[in-house]
TrEMBL record:
SUPFAM superfamilies xrefs: ClpP/crotonase, PDZ domain-like
Family membership noted in the UniProt record: Belongs to the peptidase S41A family.
Organism: Flavobacterium chuncheonense
Keyword Hydrolase: yes
Domain of life, source organism: Bacteria
Keyword Hydrolase: yes
InterPro entries hit by this protein: ClpP/crotonase-like_dom_sf, PDZ, PDZ_sf, Peptidase_S41A, Tail-specific_protease
Record protein name field: S41 family peptidase
Domain Tail specific protease positions: 172-353
Keywords: Hydrolase, Protease, Serine protease
Length: 520
């Protein structure tokens, strides 16, 4: 099912989630050694540049050549061009310098979903629903501008100022607002709060440079609220830095317990073990995973499982057991090359086969759906030859992801997968923004309880949403109307209040969280 790009919100706090396990970023010599092959490639490019009948951008030929070389290695060895690398590095660094707003390109104008809390735009007075018409004298509307044309006018040097002309629909007037650019954090810990009197919940969306600091602050906050059981939610977390997964595992494991081992082509092994500095070495731990939990997520889940430190809840993870090293190239681009395999404490490699290096490798959802694996634990095919034992002697398996200790089926019932995917997509966010935009002053005056009655006790928003997706060519039969209303209500809460209240709503119906609550 294709989702129209206009539904995808632009979160001006980050960009791309990469399914990678990264070691530290290392420089060094060019990735191509001085061989006959290199000379042949250089001679060909020089020959084309000198003699070809038409003008050719030889840089683009080199890019294509590098891509083709890496495609023949493994799915995670990749070339990242200069433009994409800027966004990737910001995302993995955990911050950027800018004005700090979430926005849509809405009807060919930059519409603010909401300014980031305590960010430069909120401090300057930008509000949700504002249209940014000009950045200094540069027009941002009626131009069909691609996102990369917007960023240079909204980002900049720390302390630099940009004069924004905004139209505030709630007041029906234009305003001039000066915003001083500052460092804007890109959160990797979405939320941390108490689910019950003793059970804490931390949601991690990736493993970036700042993730351990965010996690540790959240952990200490929850401990101060008398937490003695912890849920770490790694669903849809595609990975990131190996060292960060190690640091989080170190907080959970006792001194000397093995976290992960990596091994390169020359047989060199690097072993990571827990230190004596863990801040949550006692108390139950539950790690939530699904088919999109990959790489660093699997390192953390594997360390918890193999050391019998906690319970893995959910569905089989992605199956990515390769480590990349980043090698910057002189033109601002970079290569991330697979340089090692990692092994969980029991000795498992959880890397799935990658004979197919294309789209099918990265998106196994349909295959797992057709096999029944998303709904039945018995449908997970595991090779008996890949048996390993945890610290206490429990049997675990390698060869394709982390298999959970407690299986929880896919959230949607058979036949309702399309509806569930729609409710998890940007379509809901876009629809809710439109509803708020029509009568924002009314919604701003509602309390949480009043908002719930407005959305859940009436049918008009449900009917409007059904029409909204039908107008986009998507026809669905909403059999569980109460659940659809709950998803709509949650998105209203996110845009009007904050992420914590949003997660409190969605987790109240979450099957994996309910399963954890049943375990004790």
């Amino acid at each position: 099912m294709k989702i129209n790009k206009l539904y995808l919100p632009i979160v001006f706090t980050g960009a791309i989630a990469l399914g990678l396990v990264l070691g530290s970023k290392l420089g060094g010599p060019s990735f191509v050694s001085k061989t006959d092959g290199k000379s042949k490639l250089n001679e060909l490019i020089d020959f084309i540049d000198r003699e070809y009948v038409d003008d050719v951008n030889t840089d683009s030929i080199v890019d294509i050549t590098v891509d083709r070389i890496l495609e023949n290695l493994d799915p995670h060895s990749v070339y990242i061009n200069q433009e994409d690398l800027v966004s990737v590095n910001e995302n993995m660094r955990g911050d950027f310098v800018g004005i700090g707003v979430n926005f849509y390109m809405y009807k060919d104008s930059v519409a603010v979903i909401k300014p980031l809390k305590d960010g430069p735009s909120e401090i300057a007075g930008i509000k949700a629903g504002d249209r940014i018409l000009y950045a200094d004298k540069y027009q941002l509307f009626d131009k069909n501008l691609p996102n990369d044309s917007l960023y240079p006018h909204l980002k900049g040097e720390i302390g630099s100022e940009v004069n924004l002309t905004v139209f505030r629909k709630t007041e029906g007037k234009k305003l001039k607002i000066k915003v001083k650019r500052d460092v804007v954090p890109i959160k990797s810990v979405d939320v941390a709060f108490m689910v019950s009197d003793d059970l804490g919940y931390i949601k991690i969306n990736r493993f970036a440079e700042t993730t351990y600091e965010e996690f540790h602050r959240a952990l200490l906050k929850l401990k101060s609220n008398k937490m003695n059981r912890l849920i770490i939610d790694l669903r849809d977390n595609g990975g990131g830095y190996l060292e960060v997964a190690n640091a989080i595992a170190d907080d959970l494991l006792k001194e000397g317990e093995l976290i992960v081992k990596t091994k390169n082509k020359r047989g060199r092994e690097d072993v990571s073990k827990a230190t004596a500095d863990g801040d949550f070495e006692e108390g139950n731990v539950y790690v939530l995973i699904n088919e999109n939990s990959a790489s660093a997520s699997e390192i953390l889940a594997g360390a918890v499982q193999d050391n019998d430190r906690g319970t893995i809840v959910g569905r089989r993870s992605f199956g990515k057991g390769l480590v990349q090293r980043e090698m910057p190239l002189g033109d601002g681009s970079a290569i991330r090359l697979t340089v090692a395999r990692y092994y969980t404490p029991s000795g498992r490699s959880i890397q799935k086969p990658y004979e197919d290096k294309g789209e099918a490798y990265f998106n196994e959802f349909e295959k797992r759906f057709e096999s029944g694996e998303l709904y039945e634990a018995d449908s997970v095919h595991i090779a008996d030859s890949l048996k390993y034992k945890t610290k206490k002697g429990r049997i675990v398996y390698g060869g394709g992801g982390i298999t959970p200790d407690v299986f929880v089926p896919y959230e949607a019932k058979h036949g309702e997968e399309g509806t569930y995917m729609i409710m998890q997509s940007g379509i809901v966010s876009y629809f809710v923004f439109e509803q708020l935009d029509q009568k924002r002053n009314f919604f701003n005056g509602l309390s949480l309880s009043e908002l719930k009655k407005e959305v859940c006790d009436k049918n008009n928003y449900l009917m409007a949403f059904q029409k909204h997706i039908a107008d986009g060519g998507i026809i669905l039969n909403f059999s569980d109307k109460a659940k659809i209303k709950k998803y709509l209500y949650a998105e209203f809460v996110r845009q009007l209040f904050d992420d914590e209240h949003y997660y409190e709503v969605v987790l109240s119906e979450d099957k994996m969280v309910k399963k954890v609550l049943e375990l004790n």
